[in-house]
């Protein structure tokens, strides 16, 4: 069951519609104005990558370009990007862990809220 993307010719709103019957794909209506003549758009799509391909992308030296290891926020952005590349292999709280580590680092440097104390 595909999901088609449309743009309403009346009001210009873009919307998606789940099409249960491909023969009924032309029957979509705009949820904003009720227009019955939307233009079907070409949708972007994702392709699955093998684990080997994902690991090759992570090992590519270009993944480290522009990374300033002395800038905690740059390292945090890089870690989040790598976490997204790993996909299912990282737990759902990975971004939160990175944010927490960033907050702790900022507190150590005196740039945090002052609630955390380093020992």
Judged by helices, strands and strand pairing, the structural class is alpha+beta
> Total helix count?
3
Task: Tell me the count of domains.
Answer: 2
Flag low-confidence runs: 112-119
What would the principal axes of the Cα set say about the shape? elongated
- Following the backbone from N to C, one meets helices and strands in this order, namely EEEHHH
- What's the pLDDT, averaged over the residues? 76
| Spatial ordering of strands, largest sheet | 2-1-3
State Rg. 23 Å
Give the amount of beta strand, in percent.
5-15%
Helix share bin: 25-40%
- Strand count: 3
Distance between the termini: 57 Å
Largest sheet: 3 strands, antiparallel
Keywords:
3 helices; 2 domains; three-stranded antiparallel β-sheet; alpha+beta; 119 residues; disordered C terminus
Textual characterization of the structure:
There is one protein chain. With 119 residues, this protein is α+β, with helices and mostly antiparallel strands. The chain folds into two domains: 3-40; 51-108, no CATH class. 33% of the residues lie in helices and 10% in strands. It contains three helices and three strands; from the N terminus they run βββααα. A three-stranded antiparallel sheet has the order 2-1-3, with no helix packed on it. α2 (72-86) runs antiparallel to α3 (94-108). The N and C termini lie far apart (57 Å). 4% of the residues are buried. Residues 112-119 have low confidence and may be disordered.
Summarize the model shown:
This protein has helices spanning 51-59, 72-86, 94-108, and strands spanning 3-7, 14-18, 39-40. With 119 residues, the protein is an alpha+beta fold. It has 2 domains: 3-40; 51-108, no CATH class.
């Amino acid at each position: 069951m595909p999901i088609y993307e449309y743009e309403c010719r009346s009001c210009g709103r873009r919307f998606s519609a789940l099409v249960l019957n491909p023969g009924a794909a032309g029957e979509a209506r705009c949820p904003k104005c009720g227009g019955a003549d939307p233009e079907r758009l070409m949708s972007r799509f994702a392709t699955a990558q093998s684990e080997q391909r994902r690991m090759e992308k992570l090992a590519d030296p270009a993944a480290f370009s522009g990374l300033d290891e002395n800038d905690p926020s740059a390292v945090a952005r890089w870690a989040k990007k790598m976490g997204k590349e790993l996909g299912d292999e990282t737990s759902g709280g990975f971004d939160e862990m990175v944010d927490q580590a960033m907050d702790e680092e900022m507190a150590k440097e005196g740039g945090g809220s002052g609630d955390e104390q380093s020992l």
